[in-house]
Amino acid sequence: MTDTLTRPRQPSTTDPAGHRRAGLPVIVAVVLVAAAAIFPALSDYSTTYLFAYILIIALLGLSLHLLMGLMGVFSLGQAALFGTGAYAAVVVTEDLGLDGAIGFVLVAAVGAVLGLLMGAVTLRVTDLYLALTTLAVGYIFENVVRNSDWLGGPQGRSGFSIMFFGRSLDDPRLLCWIGLGALTLFLAVIASMRRSKIGRAFMATRESPMAARSIGVDARRYKLLGFTIAGAFSAVAGGLYSAWSLVVDPSVYSIDLTLSVLAIAIVGGLRSAPGILVVAAALTYFRNSAGDFGVSDYVLLVYGSLIVLSLRFLPLGLGGLASSPAVVRLVGRSGRRGRGGAA
Amino acid sequence: MTALLEARGLTRRWGGLTAVDEVDLTVHRGSLHGLIGPNGAGKTTLVNMITGVDRIDGGRVVFQGADVTGLAAHRLASRGMARSFQTSQLFEDESVLDNVMAGRHRHIGYRFPHTFFYTPKVSREERRHRTDVHAILRELDLAVDAHRQVSELPYGRRRLVELARAMASEPTLLVLDEPAAGLPGSDVDVLGEVLRRLRRNGYTILVIEHNIGLLMTICDRMTVLSEGRVIADDEPAVVRESPRVIEAYLGRTDDA
Ligand SMILES: Nc1ncnc2c1ncn2[C@@H]1O[C@H](COP(=O)(O)OP(=O)(O)OP(=O)(O)O)[C@@H](O)[C@H]1O
Ligand SMILES: [Mg+2]
User: Fold this and answer.
1) Which ligand gives the minimal distance to the CA of B38?
2) In the beta sheet, which residues pair with residue B33?
3) Which chain A residues have a beta carbon less than 8 Å from that of B169?
4) Inter-residue contact A87 to A248 (CB < 8 Å)
5) Chain B touched by A18 (CB under 8 Å)
6) Cross-chain Cβ contact A200/B170 below 8 Å
7) How do residues A169-212 score in pLDDT, each as one tens digit?
8) How many Cα atoms within 13 Å fall on the side-chain side of residue B81?
9) pLDDT per residue as tens digits for the range A148-174
10) What is the pTM of this model?
11) How many cross-chain Cβ pairs, A to B, lie less than 8 Å apart?
12) Alpha-carbon torsion, ordered A132, A136, A138, A144, to 10 deg
């Protein structure tokens, strides 16, 4: 290596790191996770049950954050991964008799392999072709399980019990804690990747594949990596869903799920994990209590309208609004000082 | 002087058109090599083939003594080729710092599981690379804009960011496609000075430019393309007098 750059002669006076301080967001995240972990212990059964479902949907929302927001890959394969995870959890815990602590690692591995395959199949295609190919995987799998006696055919399977650490996951509190653990792990992985080499490789590939390759980024490798991670966590979400709903049937592959998660990710902001989490909670709550408001027939209409409105007025979603220059300036004035450099 | 890059008989066809026709090009280690030619001469296509961005229809490329014909762009980049693009390929929504940090990709060594859990090792290494990147930004007078989004910058500064990103990979061969295109005169002088300084510091540079005046003053050697063929390959003083070059450029009024 020719070390030909003129190195700075004296230690620079500006903050050479010059990066976002990690401290505050980490503290905020820890507090939020702790609060979320205490929540199930204090709230009633139905609220806890809803919270568990929100966590499952949030996991899926984050997988879209990774695929679409960070990698710029327009995947509609969420249901394929989710559904496969749902069936895998039943097979692994019921048929193989494994405890969830090991079983869910296997479920994640199944999802990772399927994600990897989906990435490999779509290596050469982008945009619409990729969206349709990944969508088609869901249809294929739905058909396979529908015609498989072992997996219960059209009726699916029920009457199974998924154990975790020797306790049944039909206790929604335990379900919440496991879901929260998976979500926290996923958030930590995403946040770390974003700030490091992999995140920049994703960003480069998303913004200009040609430039990415020209700085040495093997775009295909990173696409496969991203699909693998998203696959693992989507499958875990599916497995938790099996435990939550106590029945798994071919509807876990439905496009309805893919579209509602897509709505959550777009409205929350594809590039913003916090935005997606907030909207996942809000929309799932709305959907759940739509009956109380007497609007259950209009849920999909509301989702669709929110997508349209968001794309029209908030292309970066709620999260984009929060990080818009005006808001950042407002927050910056009241908080941070002496972060030299930024004009 | 030894050859760092040797292209032999490179050919690229677009349908019936032979955009690059049996071109030979030798870039010596430590030299600043100019590549000029009228619009559509095939300059961009030639460097696209050399850097792995475009397919090669015929010929060979030898880089650092190894045959690299047809290698993918990212492999060539890992072997020490870096380039800028004629039309900007910057990461528009990202900060200048992140754009240039991306250029250090091949030097960042940490692997799984470090990247997934932002371990102290990652933190340390990131900080070290950021310091290096800041040195490059200072060198190009970009340090004040380090935290600004690229899309906010005026055109000339963006060209510099693209140069900085290529430099960040500490390339053995730096390929620049019209770095001065569209720059106002004063910035062209600055750029010329930067290129000269890089060369003094040991960089090998292959630069495409329309601004012949600039190239004449800074290059060690020049290759002139016209309609996909090499019509001159020599020192600037010789190229300047070449009848074929004068003919190819006849009627062109360059702001040289
Ligand atoms: N993708 C493409 N498809 C078809 N023809 C192309 C393509 N790219 C380049 N060409 C043709 O190849 C020839 C050489 O183009 P190239 O861009 O290499 O020229 P250049 O010397 O870089 O020109 P300029 O100075 O305008 O940048 C031109 O005739 C151009 O029209
Ligand atoms: Mg060109």
Assistant:
1) 1
2) B206, B221
3) 215-216
4) yes
5) yes
6) no
7) 889 999 999 999 999 999 999 999 999 999 999 999 999 999 99
8) 31
9) 888 988 898 988 888 899 888 889 999
10) 0.88
11) 155
12) 180
